[in-house]
Description:
The protein is α/β, with parallel strands linked by helices. The chain has two domains: 21-127 and 309-338, Medium-chain alcohol dehydrogenases, catalytic domain (Quinone Oxidoreductase, Chain A, domain 1, Alpha-Beta Complex); 144-285, Rossmann fold (3-Layer(aba) Sandwich), CATH 3.40.50. The protein is built from nine helices and 13 strands. The chain has helices at 33-39, 88-91, 133-153, 172-182, 194-202, 215-223, 240-249, 292-303, 319-327; strands at 21-30, 56-63, 75-78, 117-121, 125-127, 162-166, 186-191, 207-210, 230-235, 250-258, 283-285, 311-315, 334-338. Strands 1, 2, 3, 4, 5, 12 and 13 form a seven-stranded mixed beta sheet that branches. Strands 8-7-6-9-10-11 form a six-stranded parallel beta sheet, sandwiched between helices. β12 (311-315), α9 (319-327) and β13 (334-338) form a beta-alpha-beta unit. The chain is globular. It starts with 20 loop residues before the first strand and ends with a strand. The mean pLDDT is 95. Residues 83-84, 87, 89-90, 98-100 line the site of one zinc ion (ZN).
Amino acid sequence: MTRPGVLEQVEVPVPTAGPGEVLLAVGAVGACHSDLHVLHAPPGLFPTPMTLGHEIAGTVDSVGAGVTGWSAGDRAAVYGIIGCGTCRGCLRGLENQCRRIPPGGIGLSRDGGLAEYVAVPASRLLHVGNLDLTQAAPLTDAGLTPYHAVELARPALRPGTTCVVIGIGGLGHMAVQILAATTAVRIVAVDSSTAALDLATRVGAHHVVPAGPDAVEKIRELVGPAPDGADVVIDCVGVDPTLTTARSVVATGGQLLLVGLGGGTLPVRPVADEPPTIPLETSVTVPFWGTRAELQEVIALARAGLLTADVQTFPLERAPEAYDLLRRGEIHGRAVVVP
Ligand SMILES: [Zn+2]
Ligand SMILES: [Zn+2]
């Protein structure tokens, strides 16, 4: 990102690992919708020029002063958030709740992974064993974010309940697998693309519903009429039509998790004398990314063969094309750039 809104391929010096840092040879880096938000954010919010890319896996090239536990050749995934370390969220280990604005992170407040090398604090690295790096990279965000959402809703995800996942893209197809691997809920996947619904079925969805005007009725056939409904709804898109579907199928006392940053609005009017927009006792959560401990668990799921990213790889030269396809909604699963 050479200046706000402008993505260019340029030669930059190979970074060096400062004290406490590791220089990583980037093996793979996921292309995330959030990169587009960073690219088009108001000038001044993010530094420029800055290398984007916050979903990174690679091989340790060298280590800076004071680093222990890592040496050249080690393979690692990168936890992308760099919390301030002193706020209430960070002190509780919830760096994804860091009160610092804008959020500190690799590819957010300092150079990221869309390059051959990236320097990161050693504290951000997690071992990935023999996982393929194109698989490890998407775990750090496309895997971690829905895992964190599932963690937040876990008390409600009891055997026999229903979870609706809206949007089977980079995050949604991971959400389905995480639910299938760690719960005994009935999984209903919603998407406008037939290919995405086929992917959902392959990775563990029990029912698939095409997005559109009939989606609510089709989901209601599965979960019954209000005040019954889906116990948990995970919206990985977050535009007005998906938020409308989400609030129209969630059960009384259910949970809505708004994972996608699509710019939609969720009206909340629980009164009885007007048509309510959301059922009584329903809670709404806006999860953000996840914690380091959760990333370790996501990696464990993948190493156990229970979580596999559906990836479409691009060489570094074609990274701008990957983002164009992402912007147009033409990526199935996750786009991963391989420097
Ligand atoms: Zn992201
Ligand atoms: Zn903090």
